[in-house]
Design a protein that fits this description.
mainly alpha, 8 helices, single chain, 155 residues, 54% helix, elongated
Length: 155
Amino acid sequence: LLLSQPLGLKRLYDAPDARMRQALAREMAGRGGEQNGFRLEDEMRRLLPHFNRSYLPRREQPTSRSPFCAAEDHLLGLGLRRYGLGRFDLIRAHLLPSKSVEAIRIRYASKTGRRASDNPVRRAKAECVAASLTPAEETALVSAVKRYGEDWTVI
């Protein structure tokens, strides 16, 4: 009913696709609104009381917005020790079901970064990295450090 009035919106409403609607809207807004008695600002004010905001598309709120607490950091560290580095799907499934895999990954990255202070996640990562070397690799590494010092490019 509102769009059937000869104010220019009927053409916009009957456009076959979104690209055409956008072109018509730009044309209507660019004209200054004086042609055919159509002024976009006046038309928007007239239609605003009839507009139902519940029809707007809603953005889903990500569940990763909930902050981690200290206990969840300890659970993340436990999961790293139990399931290994990078197994965030298992950590989520068994220890942190209220967090998304992406939230756990972001928390892991922030807690194990270079500037992060000592925390359970960082300690668990260090244990996993140290534990991933075989005894032969450890002895080779120790002998290389004794021979070359801490020049890691040579080692």
